[in-house]
Automatic annotation (TrEMBL):
It comes from Enhydrobacter aerosaccus. CDD domains: crotonase-like (cd06558). The keyword Thylakoid does not apply. This is Enoyl-CoA hydratase. Keywords: Isomerase, Peroxisome.
Amino acid sequence: MRFETVLYDVEESICTITLNRPEKLNAWTRQMHLDLKEAMHAAGSDPDVRVIILTGAGRGFCAGADMSGLQAIGAGGSADRSAKAAGDLAGGSTLADFRMNYSYFPAIPKLIIAAINGPAAGLGFVIPLYADMRFAAESAVFTTAFAQRGLIAEHGVSWLLPRLVGLPAALDLLCSARKFRAPEALSLGLVNRVVPDDRLMAETRTYARLIADTVSPRSVGVMKRQLWEAQFQTLAKATVQANHEMELSFQTADFKEGVAHFLEKRAPKFTGT
């Protein structure tokens, strides 16, 4: 599968999607937006894919919106609104909140891990927040950047960032637009792991292999949907949904395999059904 601004590779049930404008630190463009959405939905609907890794080519993850595009808006142009809303994926969340231009990652029924290999600024800061997990290289640098451009908390980050780091830290990061490094991101809870630069992809893939090889892909998809949708639910509603999902899981091949491989003391052979 070929795209203009992203690379798409599937190997041993792991799909790696790479933002691919390394000469521009993978600065975001309309085409990249369209390519990434198509690539994510392709991986989400591929039964051979169990985990998705999102990273950047070269020495950066994403430097934010391409400044030439921002300059055009400032000169009297308008923000692009031509991207089509993506359709529902089987097993993914169908909440309208997860069908927006940049909030669709939670509706992808596969675990998404952002491997942040370098600078992540502005929109390049927001995109990995919608991933399910974030692994960062030691040298990675983060900044919200919006306040330094006369902009605001874009694309739902005002909802998402406080849920990850808390309200005071979110206000700090957004209003100061200061740069901060991976160890601080880890201490804030913004990333799950900080990894030496030369080990980032290897360790990310090792974790992805754990998910791909040892747990039910159906379980992962359902639990991902439960956790994201629970952000809009009461405890009672989340419990009712869990009880329903538990009854459904008892009827699946993966449940039978989960019991069988444990009793037979062998590696699992989950099919996602």
